[in-house]
Every structure is written in C-alpha cells, then in structure tokens.
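Researcher: Good morning. I'm working through a list of sequences from a screen, and I'd like to move beyond sequence-only analysis. For each chain I'm collecting a predicted structure so we can compare shapes side by side. This is the next one on the list. No need for commentary yet; just the structure.
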Amino acid sequence: MSGSNDTRDDSPGIGGGPLGGGSDPCQRKRRGPVNSPKAPVLSKLSVGSLLKVDVQMSGATPSLAVFDASGSLAGSLTFIGYLEVIDCIQNRSVTYQATIINITGGVYEVSVEPK
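Model: Good morning. Structure tokens for this chain:
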C-alpha cells in the first residue's frame, strides 16, 4: 500500500519480528518469548500483565531482560530486532514495556513496545 496515513499496523509478525511502528527501529512494536523464565516471578502474572524491559550487563555483553513491578528479573528476551532495542535503550534513552500476550504451559509470550 502506498501513501501515508496515521494508522498503525499491529498485525502479528512472523518469527517474533516487528509488528509495526514505521521506519524508526526504536518505535517498532515486537513480540517474542521470555527466555529462561523465572517461574517464581512469572507464575504470579497473567495475560495482560506489564513488565519493564531493560538492558542487563553480563560482563561486557548486554542482554535484554524483563522485570516485574517490584524489579524482580522475570527472564530475558531474544527476538528479531532485540539488538536494535538494546541500542535504543542504551544510546537513545528509549524506555520499553512488555505485555504478556500468551501463556502456554511455562512459555510466556510478550509484546514489546516503547512507552
């Protein structure tokens, strides 16, 4: 579709990729699973719960992580474009939140978007 309009494309991405947000990679909405989920933290949450997204350093290597409202680590995130999100947080001071959109067994899927 050509032309411009202000509508948002929030259709599901394939393979955890971007869901919409235009050409600025920091404004894209993305989705993916929570890796290494922390059951004691996530078991208290449900679909619709919000998590804070932030960068965690493991030595010199940054990783993307999600935290509950009390600041407890819920797990890490790796999806197509997660390195762009890390860059946006570290170099452009963009803040993100994750919303739990699906829970199947111990697998938590989140939608990540800028606040």
